[in-house]
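User: I'm writing a short methods note and want a consistent example. For ABC transporter permease, I'll paste the sequence; you return only the structure tokens, no commentary, since I'll be parsing the reply automatically.
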Amino acid sequence: MKETRPRSFYVLSCVFALFLLFLYGPMISILVLSFQGPEGGLVFPMNGVSLHWFEKLREGGGQVEIGPALRRSFRLALVVMVLTVTFSVLAGLAFRRGFRGATLLLYVAIASLIVPSIVVSLGIALEFRLIDEGIKALGAAWGIEWIQRDFVSALGPFTSGLGAHLTWTLPFGLLIMFAVFNRFDPAYEEAARDLGATPWQTFRHVTLPMIAPFLIGVAVFGFTLSWDELARSSQVMGADNTLPMQLAAKTTTVTDPEIYALGTATTGSSILLVLVTFTVATLLQRRRQRG
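Assistant:
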């Protein structure tokens, strides 16, 4: 006898399909519009099909000044990724031992997640403006010529910008590592110490290989969150724009499908990064299980 599905099944299926369309529709639209011809615009219908805008993007002579902003964002994301992984692991190890004030410190560390991003950006910018005033006052008081002649501001991608991005990536890294170490079986470390391993050898040969797949996840979080961060970057980068800031600035002026081509290229790169990450994590997991 053929099973009859209830009407609610079809209603919920339609709702889910609409949700998927709302979630991925903009990305699909950008993907399609990026393959327009030379006379194409930013809306449908398409005007021809070609790789013109990808070629223009590669040449770097179009509306979007991608080169410097792209390289700046990539370097910043790499630094944020390394610092996020390092601090998250160290904090996870410290919280395993327990210390006075650990709970308060945890709340302070993750508090930036609930503070509006633009407020964080404004606060860091104000802080660095005060630092600028202090440096200029010091240069005037001590007669330091290079400060009086060349110093403009301490605001920049790898000073205030780096701090702003870490306020966003570190809490996620900390929460992941806390969850990992809460489920971590210390019997493996105790066995290594019983066999004469030093604390460093225990960490390197036992703890680190077991948490390596999760470190890859923290690294991906750190890189991607920094790569596309806009609100926390808006007030703290000084004269140097990151790629999201550059795109936001360009969309307020005359634009063309080159921006869509850039979106397609970066989305493809992000998907490739995720696939490579999952592959590496799976291989590490299998290697650990065989060991």
